[in-house]
Amino acid sequence: MEAILAVTVGIFFAVAIYLMLSRHIIRILLGVSIFGNAVNLTIFTSGRVVREVPPIIPVDLDVPAGVTANPLPQALILTAIVISFSFFAFLLVLAFRTYQELGTDDTDGLRVAEPEGEELPPLGY
Amino acid sequence: MAVQAHETVDLSGAMVLAPTSPADWLVIAPVAIPLVFGAVLLIFRHETRLQAGIAIAGLIATLAGNVLLLSHILDHGPAVMTMGRWLPPFGISFAADILGASLALVATLVALVCAFYSTADIGMIGRRYGFYPFLLLMMAGVGGSFLTGDIFNLYVWFEVFLISSFGLLVLGSEHRQLDGATKYAILNLVGTTFFLTATALLYGAFGTLNMADIARKADSVREAAPLTTLSVFFLLAFAMKAAAFPVNFWLPASYHTPRIVTAALFGGVLTKVGVYALLRVLVMLFPPERALLSGVIAWVAAATMIVGIMGALSQTDLRRVLGFVVISSVGIMLAGLALGTGEGLAGTVFYAFHSMIVMAALYLLAGIMNGLGGSYSLHTLSGLYARHPLIAAFALVLILASAGLPPASGLWPKVMLVRASLDAGQGWLAFAILATGFLTTLALGRVFILAIWRQRDDQALLETASPFHGYLTLAILTVPVLFMGLYPQPVIDIAERAAGGILDASSYIGTVFPEGALP
After folding, report:
1. A107, B34, B150, B266 - which has most CB atoms within 10 Å?
2. What is the secondary structure of B333-345 as a DSSP string?
3. CA distance linking residue A69 with residue A59, whole number of Å
4. Which pLDDT value is given to residue B8?
5. Residues 6 or more apart whose Cβ sits within 8 Å of residue B268
């Protein structure tokens, strides 16, 4: 099970990095979104992966009877999903505003903050 | 049945049963106070007149909490507060040692001065769009990053200050802000996601995320787990956060775009959080891996210093010059991390204190110079000395501090770092630090000559009224700069104790897991 998940995570990372290397912001954002999911799967895999055994302790015991699913990675992923989702929403709005204002989503065209061919500082006075 | 079982179970092994002592509440004060005030500011979002007052009151309260916390730690050793009564490593603990508490204190001081400066700089529209709530929430995130004792919690605080910094960065919605913010947001998000990946692998290797627990278990896990790979992941993620070469290009693309107060806060505080995280993770948790990587870190440090300051030399815009100076100061801090000796790390910590204050002050100075001379460009900004000699005096002190020349604060941490490099047999690293100091003198000295000394024909265009507000801000920041330069011993003591605390983490671990109460 871990092996399948590991390969899936690898594919996710590859796709994410390929998309993030693109010149277009919208493709970069898709890459960022897949990147976040790749990491969530990594957290999930780094815990114990078992089939359908809820971590419930029977009434008369102090510890679970057998090997159970690890609840902690799921709590971590829940936090990570919320955070990455909110960031993705923010980035989408930011990208849309940038496209609206600057008229391009090509990162090579985004040269407002760092204009091309800027003059050098004066050498003397 | 269930009730009976509850009565017989002894909870003392799993839960904190004693009430939290008042001193331990101090640990969360630097986080809780700005969070509460940030929430209050959000409630009063439409009351633009009240915003600045509430924010400054909140930051003064935070500063008081920080001072009390640091003095408590200096007297009694590290302090811990565990959330939800679950004992660590199950409950998330806030663990404050000298390193975290002192950095949080200086960061809050810088934020307070910036908030004071902003009362004149941020107009009604900026307040209406929430400058002050963002500021307070960002400081809550920064404080949380400095004080948390849990790696995943560190990630969460990183995200808290990151999202607030996005808000501050785009405040104003100018074209270049949108451009800068896009690059800043995407690259920083990728950096923190790398951090999360490393955290996932760390959890897979250790089964715990509590830093004290990890430091305790590292030796037994080292055989079986790829800790060097993990350390490289952390190094990459935090180097991106700290803007180290070669993952630094988001910083000069974005730091010159926002309001000057925001740039001062970012340049002063945010990169140091990355440096702090590097110290915490590489020095305290994985010392053998840090030793293995020290060659790489040393090259990264030298490249960051030299490339950063070369960038500063080539810029025309005053704010962009300062962006590159921030990068080169990060390189100097990484030099101490590469050495890993007590003195080197103490130099890094001292340099972090100095750099937070001086970089913020330099950005604010740039803002004041723009207000007086009407431009940030070195081509047009000139003639300030004739009308405003006091500005020239402040500029001189801050430039000397940044270049590491006496009588200002930059001298002593550089002396410590150079001596530590020579002691470690890394003469070339010492040379890089000294060369950076020389190039910084050139880069900022040129700013001084062109913007302040150069004669101006049309003096009438200059603003004549002296900015009392700006002078006061700079004076508040120059006092600690001169103090650290002229009487450095107390700060050196704190920096050495902070470095000692992460080199030998036994008292930190002993506070989180007292009296052998180990799981």
Report:
1. B34
2. HHHHHHH-SHHHH
3. 18
4. 60
5. B107, B110, B114, B355, B356, B357, B359, B360, B363
Q: What is the mean pLDDT of residues B284-293?
A: 92
Which of A46, A84, A97 lies nearest to residue B200, judging by beta carbons? A46
Tell me what pLDDT residue B517 has. Answer: 52
Nearest chain A residue to B180 by CA: give it: A113
Pairing of strands B79-82, B93-96: antiparallel
Q: Dump pLDDT digits (tens) for B173-212.
A: 888 899 999 999 999 999 999 999 999 999 989 888 999 9
Nearest to B373, CA basis, from B452, B443, B444: B452
Model pLDDT, residue A46: 86
How many other C-beta atoms lie within 10 A of the C-beta of residue A58?
Answer: 9
Lookup result for tokens 């930051």: B59
Q: Which of B182, B196, B314 sits opposite A25 (nearest CB)?
A: B182
Distance of alpha carbon B267 from alpha carbon B256, whole angstroms: 10
B339 within 8 A of B426, measured Cβ to Cβ: yes
- The CA-CA-CA angle for residues B462, B464, B466, to 5°, reads 125
- Compare all CA atoms of chain A with the CA of B254 and give the residue at the minimum distance: A113
Tell me if A94 and B163 make a contact (CB, 8 A cut-off). Answer: no
Residue type, position B473, single letter: T
Q: Tell me the C-alpha distance between A123 and B378, whole Å.
A: 10
Nearest to B193 among A39, A76, A119 (CB): A39
Q: Return the H-helix or E-strand segment holding B95.
A: strand B93-96
Residue entry with tokens 């009564």: B85
Closest residue, chain A, to B89 (C-alpha): A72
**Taking the model in full, what pTM does it have?**
0.93
Whether a cis peptide bond, with omega within 30° of 0, leads into B89 is yes
For residue B159, the chain A residues in CB contact (below 8 A) are 83, 87
> Which stretches of chain A drop beneath a pLDDT of 70?
none
In one letter, which amino acid is B400?
L
Q: Please tell me the distance from the alpha carbon of residue B43 to that of residue B163, in angstroms, as a whole number.
A: 19
Which chain A residues are Cβ-neighbours of B162 within 8 angstroms? 87
Q: How far is A94 from chain B (nearest CA, A)?
A: 7
Instruction: State the ipTM, two decimals.
Output: 0.92
Q: What share of chain A is helix, strand, coil (3-state, %, to 5)?
A: 60, 0, 40
Cα–Cα distance for residue pair B102/B121, rounded to 1 Å: 28
The tokens 């179970």 sit on which residue?
B9
